[in-house]
Design a protein that fits this description.
The chain is an alpha+beta fold. The chain has 2 domains: 98 residues, OB fold (Dihydrolipoamide Acetyltransferase, E2P), CATH 2.40.50; 119 residues, OmpA-like domain (60s Ribosomal Protein L30, Chain: A), CATH 3.30.1330. β2 and β3 form a beta hairpin. The longest helix has 20 residues. The radius of gyration is 22 Å and the shape is elongated.
Length: 261
């Protein structure tokens, strides 16, 4: 009986160790759809999501010009990221790089708001104080650039998405660079992608989106006054073989400026 008891405790210990080892590992790539969770803090709210019994940190409730925009309550979110070695934030494992895509369908079950807890206090200053940005961060480019030196640009998109508010900066840069370089042609290539989730599920963007993306960028540049150039449009469907690695990067529009000689 004594030996049997030892064997039982040994089995429990092995199972517990295996459970810990089965958790997320740095460098592991994850792709899943989940309800976002808001955790309140004394500074700015944190956004989290759960997958496979593990909580992941998504982003802070900050300005729309931030690299990762917050999801929405009432909607599920597609999370595509890589597990980072950085310390947990707000009780969630950090994913970096990270791409979030809000699903358009309403989901009333996505309504969890957690209260602030001292143990989850932020250990760093948020990018800016909470509240509206009054447009400064959304449209201003904080990095000084030589407008004529850059001729290639990429616009990244959310799943099934088109141009949104955060694209204002890069569109402004394209406009300024085209004028500085005296571009005679603008080549625009739109792409449609798909996402292979970690559980094997396939999500494909709607048909024809690659063309719509390219045409929208052309019309926005034209509408901003860039009319005396030749626009050459292409589109490619990359949705047939998602690999779970480059899926988010394939949701894009590439823009190349052909400068005057």
């Amino acid at each position: 009986m004594r030996n049997a008891g030892r064997s039982l405790w040994w089995c429990i210990a092995v199972l517990a160790t295996a459970s810990v080892e089965a958790g997320p590992k740095a460098g592991e790539r994850l792709s899943f759809v989940s309800c976002p969770i808001v955790r309140d803090t004394r500074t700015v709210p944190c956004w989290l999501a759960e997958y496979g019994g593990t909580t992941y940190f998504l982003t802070l409730q900050t300005d729309v010009s931030a690299p990762v925009n917050p999801p929405w309550l009432g909607h599920r979110v597609l999370v595509e990221g890589v597990v980072s070695e950085e310390p947990d934030i707000c009780g969630g494992h950090v994913l970096k790089p990270l791409t979030l895509s809000v699903m358009p369908e309403l989901d009333a079950s996505c309504n969890v708001v957690l209260p602030a807890e001292d143990r989850y206090e932020l250990t760093f200053e948020p990018p800016r104080p909470p509240g509206p940005s009054r447009g400064r961060l959304a449209f201003g480019d904080p990095v000084m650039r030589d407008a004529a030196a850059t001729l290639d640009f990429t616009l990244a998109y959310e799943f099934d998405g088109k141009v949104v508010f955060r694209h204002a900066q890069i569109l402004q840069r394209i406009l300024e660079s085209a004028r500085a370089a005296k571009a005679t042609e603008i080549r625009i290539t739109g792409y449609r992608s798909a996402s292979r989730l970690s559980d094997g599920t396939m999500m494909r963007e709607r048909a024809g989106l690659e063309r719509e993306r390219a045409e929208q960028v052309r019309e926005l540049l034209r509408g901003a006054g860039l009319e005396s150039v030749v626009y050459t449009l292409h589109w490619k469907d990359l949705s047939k073989r998602p690999d779970g690695i480059a899926d988010a990067a394939n949701r894009r529009v590439d823009v190349t400026l052909i400068a005057a000689r």
